[in-house]
Amino acid sequence: MNKSRYRLVWNRRLGALVAAAETQRGVQGEPGQAEMGQGGTPLKSKASLAVLTALMMLPVGQAYADNYASGGENGTTAVTIGGAASAPTASTGGTFPAVAGSDGTSQNEAFGVNSTANGGAAVSVGDTVSATGQNATAVGSNSTATGTNAVAYGGASNANGTNATAIGAQATASASNAVALGSTATASGVATVAVGVGANASGNSAMAVGLAATASGGSAVALGNSSVASGGSAVAVGQSSTASSAGSVAMGFGANAGSVSGVASLVDDWVSGSTGRISTVQAGNTAVGNAATANGDGTALGTSTVATGTESLAAGGGATATGRVGVALGGGALASGDSAVAIGNTSSSEGAQSVAIGAGAEALSNQATALGNAAFANAANSTALGQGAIASNPGDVALGAGSVAAAANPVSSATVGNTTFSSFAGTNPTSVVSVGSVGNERQITNVAAGQISATSTDAVNGSELYAVAQQVDTLSTDLSAVSQNVGTLSTGLSTVNQQVASLASSIQATAGTATGTNSMAVGTGSTASGANGVATGNGAIASGTNSSAFGANASASGTDSSATGTSAAASGTNSSAFGANASASGTNSSATGASAAATGNNSTASGANASASGTNSSATGASAAATGNNSTALGANTQASAANSVALGEGSVANEANTVSVGSSGNDRRITNVAAGVNPTDAVNMSQLQGVQDSVNSVARRAYSGVAGAVALSMIPDVDPGKTISVGIGSGGYQGYGAVALGFTARISSNIKVRGGASTSSAGTAYGGGVSYQW
């Protein structure tokens, strides 16, 4: 007989059929008794699975259970038939390879020790499993499914709620329509979804996908390992990203859209293009880029950008906007004051309502304004306009490159020859306007005539001073000349009107093609296809949104781009190209000068044939080249090819990372006016080095003199045999230093001899002594 086959037998104590292997026999030949092994141990292995298989094949309404309890039949292990199905434990400590139960009315099915199924069409499979509710299903040891259509699948899984689903070891779905997929995943809010090991979705309608992802805000979405979306309707996408305020959006590894209360946001358009740009954010925080951080309705765009001020904006690698409504644009730009604006690489605007525009520009006090590369305004209400301009006193204005505004100098009177002039107006100035510096003065031209009166504080021009020197009787002649000039002006205006009419006709004749919304094209063959685009010049093309192309064959294809000059091209977003054949293809790039090229993102090329191809690079000067990331080449023919390198001065080459070069091989330069170094990494000047050399020379002099003294002592003759005392003089020299020595030798006995002496030199005196014992 095949031992793997089973048959149905009658158990008289249970009053029901049970499945048993054909090899088993009951006690006293009864088919209802299970065959026991040695010592009363029930037979297990394949028979256990056969019992479950047989029960599943029987019609609904009957329950079957084989009893393997020690000591023979045990009626307490039979399956209860009624409104609920269960597989009970044996009261005498029996073990059960497989037990099952089924009721005859509600179609509940229970498989396993202590397994229960209640509620109608409920199914429980496994030891200590509970399925309670219409169509509830629980599979796995210690799993629980409570609620209509609830499903729990996996060891210790728990689905508690209508339509709740928990799949995975210790997965928990504890609210209606909640779904938890993955080991220890938890979905505790209504209609929540948690997918991934340890994922947690607790806010209603929230979704958490990824290892340890957390979505605790209502309708929040967290996508990515360890991502957190805790604000209402917040979205966090990327590993370790955090969106903690209502409606905030954080995208990218470690991105952080921080806390602000009572603010909602709506992202109309998700992501456009490959750059990860959020196209429209109506409210809330936006952080886009690796390690970007945004709080308080702030917007942070770029790697390591920080926008923590209320409604602040930071764009560009490392840009920081911490002030309320602050704006920081450019690599390393800082806007820390409220309503502050910093535009340009490493620009800094730290005062309230301050403005700094230009690479390295600084506006450090309230309402200060600095415009131009390295412009500096560090006092309240001060203004510095131009490269390197400095306004360091409150209210001062420095106009022009290199201008310096000094402190105000009150003047109440002046003496010329023997005449003293006084009663001046404006004798208490509060600030200064400077148009140059000492040795670099400028003329002020095109000055309108100022009012002349006892109280006037207007500036006067040269013509007013000239008029003072004229005779009064020439006044009528001057008036006549003025009248003639007015007539001439009238004739000139008539001519201008005619020229304007002619120009209008020319413009009509040379109009180009403008197909973009609100666009304009002027010139034969010109085209403006981008919205708000302007193309001026024969063959000019403005295809980017908000783009401008001025000049023959100029092309502006990037969004917000501008190309000015013959064949100039601006293809990067926010790029600018100025000059014939100039090219700006990098994002936020700027090329100024004939054939200048700015191809790196956030790069700047200024000068004929200048080239800036590295990210955040800057090349200034004819044929200057900055190819390394974050490199700077300043001067004609300079080259900065390594990362973070700086080349200063014509022909300088910086080809090693993190270095500053002021020349090249065979073309060295001195660095002058260097302050004395203080810190371990500071540069030292020649005076510090000379001090070290002086110390070395002093030590050398003493050492040389000491050697000469030692030589002089060694030259003193010893006491001769048979003599008792010898006194002598010796001399010595070394490296140009001399010494003289006086010494003695005394024989105390035939075995003991004593010796002593002293030498003197320009460095001091040396002495010595010794005793010897001989035998």
Describe, in plain words, how this protein is organized in 3D:
The protein has 775 residues and is mainly beta. The N and C termini lie far apart (117 Å). It has four helices and 75 strands. It has a 22-stranded mixed sheet, covered by helices on one side. The chain has a 21-stranded mixed sheet, with no helix packed on it. An eleven-stranded parallel sheet has the order 50-52-54-56-58-60-62-64-66-68-70, with no helix packed on it. A hairpin with a 4-residue loop joins strand 1 and strand 2. Among the domains are: 512-661, Serralysin-like metalloprotease, C-terminal (Alkaline Protease, subunit P, domain 1, 2 Solenoid), CATH 2.150.10; 701-773, 2-Layer Sandwich (Pantoate--beta-alanine Ligase, Chain: A,domain 2). The model is unreliable at 1-6, 13-19, 26-99, 260-283 and 503-509 (pLDDT under 50). 11% of the residues lie in helices and 30% in strands. The chain is flat.
Which regions are unreliable across 5 or more consecutive residues at pLDDT < 50? 1-6, 13-19, 26-99, 260-283, 503-509
The total count of strands amounts to 75
CATH homologous superfamily title of the domain at 512-661: Serralysin-like metalloprotease, C-terminal
Q: How would the global form be characterised?
A: flat
CATH architecture heading of the domain at 512-661: 2 Solenoid
- The radius of gyration is 48 Å
Structural class: mainly beta
> What is the typical, i.e. mean, pLDDT?
80
Roughly how much helix do the residues carry, as a percent range? 10-25%
Number of helices: 4
Strand content: 25-35%
CATH class term of the domain at 512-661: Mainly Beta
**Within the CATH hierarchy, at the fold level, what is the topology of the domain at 512-661?**
Alkaline Protease, subunit P, domain 1
